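Query structure, 182 tokens:
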């Protein structure tokens, strides 16, 4: 199963729409998926005491990370980086097992022209530190507000094709890594 993560807690975000589209692409290709939306993180996780003792309400998020065969993260660029909630989410995950040896891929999105390049590159450093297997192919979607229609579809055919190719290649990468580790 591939877990697609919407990398923001902003309500009704473009990240969530793209994450749902990725799940649809993977499901159409016969892959099992789960959508993990950081907007659904329980509020108590954000209390300062969570660093000492992670709340029980986080257990379902932790379980999803341990059970998944791969992580496909949609990363919006906020102020030249990835959203703070992504780092906080990673901080709450058990170390080292949550990301250790997990295949991970990144789809960057932004309102600007670079499609979240800085956000993805910075987040890759965190995932590398946590010993995830980084997928070498990334996809960047610029001007997301202009190319995402009301139904959550990408209207630019070239970007839609690139997104599909990256997503399906990542699924193959996950299968190969899982087979190699068995």
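Result returned for the query:
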């Amino acid at each position: 199963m591939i877990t697609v993560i919407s990398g923001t807690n902003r309500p009704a975000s473009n990240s969530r729409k793209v994450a749902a589209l990725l799940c649809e692409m993977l499901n159409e290709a016969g892959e099992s998926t789960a959508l993990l939306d950081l907007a659904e993180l329980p509020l108590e996780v954000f209390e300062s005491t969570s660093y000492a003792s992670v709340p029980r309400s986080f257990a379902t998020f932790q379980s999803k990370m341990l059970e998944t065969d791969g992580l496909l993260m949609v990363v919006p660029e906020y102020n030249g980086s990835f959203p703070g909630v992504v780092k906080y989410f990673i901080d709450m995950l058990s170390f080292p097992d949550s990301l250790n040896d997990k295949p991970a891929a990144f789809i960057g999105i932004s309102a600007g022209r670079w499609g979240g390049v800085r956000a993805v590159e910075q987040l890759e450093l965190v995932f590398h530190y946590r010993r995830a297997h980084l997928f070498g192919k990334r996809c960047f979607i610029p001007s997301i507000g202009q190319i995402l229609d009301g139904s959550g579809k990408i209207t630019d055919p070239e970007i839609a094709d690139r997104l599909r190719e990256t997503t399906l290649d990542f699924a193959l990468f996950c299968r190969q890594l899982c087979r190699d580790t068995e």
